[in-house]
Amino acid sequence: MSANLSWVLNDVLEVRGAHHAILVSADGLLMQRSDGIGRDDAERNAAAMSSLQSLCRSVASFVENGDLWKQTLIEFDGGWIFLIAGGQGSYLAVSTSLDVDMEAMSIRMQKTVSALAKAMSAAPRQTMGADV
Predict the structure, then answer these.
(1) pLDDT by residue, tens only, the chain of 132 residues
(2) Domain count of the chain?
(3) Is 38 among the domain residues?
(4) Scanning 10, 12, 51, 119, which has the fewest C-beta atoms within 10 Å of its C-beta?
């Protein structure tokens, strides 16, 4: 991704209790990270978030008329992970503390991806064939 969107991710972190944010491509590549997370951690988590959304999509039939995955929320002893669709082929993940205002975080993330859906989109990678 050519545009530096770290300012967008840092803006999401303005919600009290938010820690880190990453923008992930559908194939698990780190597209952008907030200032507070190192590159290695961000890349490892990007791959995991891509796998997580894929897993969630695979169980969509468990929900009646649940054919379109929108978001995942995971609780840990020390906090939450919010994962939402960020645009065509991208996902936004944010880690937070347990006392985060969940509604405020969800709304902030939704507004961010709605306003920047085009900038946050990632086209699928093209595979070069032997005859190309």
Answers:
(1) 446 767 778 889 999 999 999 999 989 999 999 989 999 999 999 999 999 998 988 888 888 877 788 899 999 999 999 999 887 788 999 999 999 999 999 999 998 887 666 555 556 666 666 554
(2) 1
(3) yes
(4) 51
**Residue 109 half-sphere exposure, CB side, CA atoms within 13 Å?**
28
Contacts (Cβ under 8 Å, ≥6 apart) of 63? none
CA atoms within 13 A on the CB side of 88: 7
Phi-psi group of 48: left, alpha or beta (phi > 0 → left; psi -120 to 50 → alpha; rest → beta): alpha
- Stated pTM of the model: 0.83
Range of the domain at 101: 6-115
Which H helix or E strand runs over 6? helix 6-12
Q: Is residue 1 part of a domain?
A: no
- What is the residue whose two structure tokens read 């085009």? 118
Give percent helix, percent strand, percent coil of the chain, each to the nearest 5: 35, 25, 40
Other residues' Cβ atoms within 10 Å of the Cβ of residue 83: 24
Name the one residue in this structure whose structure tokens are 């936004």. Answer: 92
